Amino acid sequence: MVHRVVRHVEVWSVAKVVTVFAICGYIIGMVSGYLLWRAADRVGTIDGIEGFMEDSGGYDSFVILGDVVFRAAAIGGAVVAVLFVAMVILAAVLFNLISDLTGGIRMTAIDEDLIVTPARRPEADPARRPEADPARRPEADPARRQQATPVNGHAVPSAEETTTTGGAESSSAGTSSG
Fold first, then answer.
1. How far apart are the first and last CA of the chain?
2. CA separation (Å) from 66 to 43, 79, 167?
């Protein structure tokens, strides 16, 4: 776990992000409002509301004008978006001022790259086995090379047999160049 303290928020960075967020919200609100208006108009909901208002009394004729509603929603949505941006910027400035007094917000995060796995017993760890360490292998020691066990009926090539000679690699098992 990594403990971090957030003591300062860059106001310009917050302003850029919240402006893009508000523009996206405004566009989504306007498009969804238009689509809902069109759907309500097609199924007759708008006519039903107009008829209800005429029948309930007080109106001889009641008509909802879609372009007036859309214009009012556009202006109202823009005002709400600008107020939202201003409020969030004000909140960022207030956070910086309050953070200077209180020391910030302490957060605990888990860095997945630093997750430590439980240690294994040395005898169960394959990296600690003699065959995993090239210096401890029998074929690395010339005195123990003769004692190396064959693999699939073939002798294990020694380090000297697999060295590079004159730019070409040679081995008793044979290699293909490509």
1. 48
2. 15, 20, 82
Q: Indicate the pairing of strand 164-165 with strand 2-6.
A: unpaired
Q: How confident is the model at residue 115 (pLDDT cuts 50, 70, 90)?
A: low
Nearest CA to 35 out of 64, 79, 70, 75 is that of 70
Q: What is the C-alpha separation between 158 and 145, in angstroms, rounded?
A: 7
Residue 178 has pLDDT above 50, yes or no: no
Check if the beta carbon of residue 143 is closer than 8 Å to that of residue 135: no
Strand ranges inside the chain, DSSP E? 2-6, 105-109, 164-165, 168-169
Q: Please say if the pLDDT value at position 176 is more than 50.
A: no
Contact 4, 106 (CB under 8 A): yes
pTM over 0.70: no
